[in-house]
C-alpha cells in the first residue's frame, strides 16, 4: 500500500514482486503453526526487502538499469538473494540504479530518475538511489545495494539511511552483475544500524561460488550493533579523523562539516578518543579509481555482445536495404543502442587505459597509487581503531545539476572511494540535517579489513 501511495512520485522500484504478499502469508502460517519449523525461522523471516537491480533474481527481471538487459530474467538467484529467501525474507521488488552502477545520482538509469523522498527535486544518490529511496520513503524496511565506489554509502547518506560496504570478500558477489571486480561489494541499506547488522548476518559469510570470498567465520554483526547500544561501548575507542577528508577548502558543504564534528563530539562524550590521522595519498583516490574502474568495467561489459545476453539490434545493410551485417556490425549496433552515454564513456576510457603503449602510464600508475592508499590505511589504523570522514561532500544535489558534467559527478565520490581501493569496510549513518538546506548528512566510519564489527558497534553507539 505504501509503495502504491508514494512510488509514483519516488520511482524507487523498477519491478514489483507480485508474489510478495503470498510468500509473507506462508511464513505467517509457519509461525502460527508453531513447533520446530516456527522455531527455525530467522529473526528477519517475513520482513520484505528491496533488491538493487544489479542482483540476479530468478523470478524477476534483472537489468542493472540498462536498456541492453531489458526484460532479462536470470536463470539463477544471486547468493545473497538465495540466502535471504532461505532465511524467510520476502523480496519486494527490484530497485532503480545508475546503468551498470556507474554514477552518483541514479540519473544514468535507462528507466528514468528516482527522486529523493526528502525533496523530490533532488537526487537520491547513486548508483543505488532506488534502494536508499525505498528505505527512506518507508516503502521497504530493508534493502540490498552494491558498493564499488560508494553506491551504498553515498545514497544512504543523502537519504538519511544507514548503508554498509562490507570488507571485500565478506559478502558473496556471485550473481551480482559485475562493474569492477576488484572493488565490488554487496551490502545492506536500512534505517538503523541494528537492522543492517541483522541483514549482514543473513547475506554474509563464505561462498565457494565467489573465488574472492573470505573462507573464515565472521562474528554476528547484529551482536556488534547491540553491543554499541550499551553504555560505555566506545570508551577508549580511538577514532581517527582523516585530515585530508574533513577540512574546509576540500569541497565540503559547511553544514556537512558542522554535523560531522558534532557527531564526533557525541562519541567523545561517550568516552571515545578523537585523534587526527593523515592519509596523504587519499587526494589521488578519485583519479586512480576513475582509471581502474573503467579498465575493469570495459572488460566486464564485453559480454554484452548481442549474443550471450539481452538485446540484439541488427543493422540495415545500406546496399540491400535489408537487416543484416557481420558479427561485428551487429555487436556495434547493439552496444550503440543498448548502452547509455556514461557506460560508453567508461568503456572507451577503460579500453584506452588498457591499450598497448598506454597501459603502464595509466592503469599501471593507478595501481601504484592504489598501493599507496592501502599503505596510508595501514599507517592510519596503527594509531586509530576506526577512521571517520563525512560520507559525502554535500547533501543531495538537484536533479540535472551535474548530469552534463561527469567530473563534477565523480568528485561527489571523494570520501567513499578510498575504502573500495583498499578493500576495507565502511558504514554511513545519519548525522542530522544540514542547517543550510535541512537535508540529511551522513557520517562515515571505516575499519581495517575483516573488522566490520567495529563499524556496527561505533555506529550503534552514535545512533
Ligand atoms: N559513483 C561511483 C561511480 O560512478 C559509484 C560506483 C559504485 O559504487 N557502483 O563509479
From TrEMBL:
Its EC number is 6.3.5.7. Pfam families: Amidase. Belongs to the amidase family. GatA subfamily. Keywords: ATP-binding, Ligase, Nucleotide-binding, Protein biosynthesis. It comes from the Bacteria. It catalyses: L-glutamyl-tRNA(Gln) + L-glutamine + ATP + H2O = L-glutaminyl-tRNA(Gln) + L-glutamate + ADP + phosphate + H(+). It comes from Lysinimonas soli. This is Glutamyl-tRNA(Gln) amidotransferase subunit A. PANTHER family: GLUTAMYL-TRNA(GLN) AMIDOTRANSFERASE SUBUNIT A, TRANSAMIDASE. The keyword Acyltransferase does not apply. The active site is at 52 (charge relay system), 127 (charge relay system), 151 (acyl-ester intermediate). Heterotrimer of A, B and C subunits. InterPro entries: Amidase (IPR000120), Amidase_CS (IPR020556), Amidase_dom (IPR023631), AS_sf (IPR036928), GatA (IPR004412). Signal peptide: none annotated. The gene is gatA. Allows the formation of correctly charged Gln-tRNA(Gln) through the transamidation of misacylated Glu-tRNA(Gln) in organisms which lack glutaminyl-tRNA synthetase. The reaction takes place in the presence of glutamine and ATP through an activated gamma-phospho-Glu-tRNA(Gln). The keyword Iron does not apply. Residues 1-455 form the Amidase domain.
Amino acid at each position: 500500500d505504501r509503495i502504491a501511495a508514494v512510488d509514483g512520485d519516488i520511482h524507487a522500484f523498477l519491478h514489483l514482486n507480485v508474489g510478495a504478499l503470498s510468500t509473507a502469508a506462508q511464513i505467517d502460517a509457519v509461525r502460527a503453526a508453531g513447533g520446530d519449523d516456527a522455531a527455525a525461522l530467522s529473526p528477519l523471516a517475513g520482513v520484505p526487502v528491496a533488491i538493487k537491480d544489479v542482483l540476479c533474481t530468478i523470478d524477476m527481471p534483472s537489468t542493472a538499469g540498462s536498456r541492453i538487459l531489458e526484460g532479462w530474467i536470470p536463470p539463477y538467484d544471486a547468493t545473497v538473494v538465495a540466502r535471504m529467501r532461505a532465511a524467510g525474507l520476502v523480496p519486494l521488488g527490484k530497485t532503480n540504479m545508475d546503468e551498470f552502477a556507474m554514477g552518483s545520482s541514479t540519473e544514468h538509469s535507462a528507466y528514468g530518475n528516482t527522486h529523493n523522498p526528502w525533496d523530490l527535486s533532488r537526487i537520491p544518490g547513486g548508483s543505488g538511489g532506488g534502494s536508499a529511496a525505498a528505505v527512506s520513503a518507508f516503502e521497504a524496511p530493508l534493502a540490498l545495494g552494491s558498493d564499488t565506489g560508494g553506491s551504498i554509502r553515498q545514497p544512504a547518506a543523502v537519504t538519511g539511511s544507514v548503508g554498509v560496504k562490507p570488507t571485500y570478500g565478506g559478502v558473496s558477489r556471485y550473481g551480482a552483475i559485475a562493474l569492477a571486480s576488484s572493488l565490488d561489494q554487496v551490502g545492506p541499506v536500512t534505517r538503523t544500524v541494528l537492522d543492517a547488522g541483522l541483514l549482514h548476518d543473513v547475506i554474509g559469510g563464505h561462498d565457494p561460488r565467489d573465488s574472492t570470498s573470505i573462507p573464515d567465520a565472521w562474528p554476528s554483526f547484529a551482536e556488534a550493533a547491540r553491543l554499541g547500544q550499551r553504555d560505555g561501548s566506545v570508551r577508549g575507542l580511538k577514532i581517527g579523523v582523516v585530515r585530508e577528508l574533513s577540512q574546509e577548502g576540500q569541497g565540503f558543504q559547511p553544514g556537512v562539516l558542522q554535523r560531522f564534528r558534532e557527531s564526533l563530539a557525541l562519541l567523545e562524550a561517550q568516552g571515545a578518543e578523537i585523534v587526527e590521522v593523515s592519509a596523504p595519498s587519499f587526494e589521488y583516490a578519485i583519479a586512480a579509481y576513475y582509471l581502474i574502474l573503467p579498465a575493469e568495467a570495459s572488460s566486464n561489459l564485453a559480454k554484452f555482445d548481442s549474443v550471450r545476453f539481452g538485446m540484439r539490434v541488427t543493422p540495415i545493410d545500406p546496399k540491400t536495404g535489408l537487416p543484416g551485417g557481420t558479427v561485428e556490425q551487429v555487436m556495434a549496433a547493439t552496444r550503440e543502442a543498448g548502452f547509455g552515454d556514461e557506460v560508453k564513456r567508461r568503456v572507451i576510457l577503460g579500453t584506452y587505459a588498457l591499450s598497448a603503449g598506454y597501459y603502464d602510464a595509466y592503469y599501471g600508475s593507478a595501481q601504484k597509487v592504489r598501493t599507496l592508499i592501502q599503505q596510508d590505511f595501514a599507517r592510519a589504523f596503527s594509531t586509530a581503531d576506526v577512521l571517520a570522514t563525512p560520507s559525502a561532500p554535500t547533501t543531495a544535489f538537484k536533479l540535472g545539476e551535474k548530469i552534463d558534467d561527469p567530473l563534477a559527478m565523480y568528485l561527489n565520490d571523494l570520501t567513499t572511494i578510498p575504502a573500495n581501493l583498499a578493500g576495507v569496510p565502511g558504514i554511513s549513518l545519519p548525522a542530522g540535517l544540514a542547517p543550510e538546506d535541512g537535508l540529511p548528512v551522513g557520517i562515515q566510519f571505516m575499519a581495517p579489513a575483516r573488522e566490520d564489527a567495529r563499524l556496527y558497534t561505533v555506529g550503534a553507539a552514535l545512533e
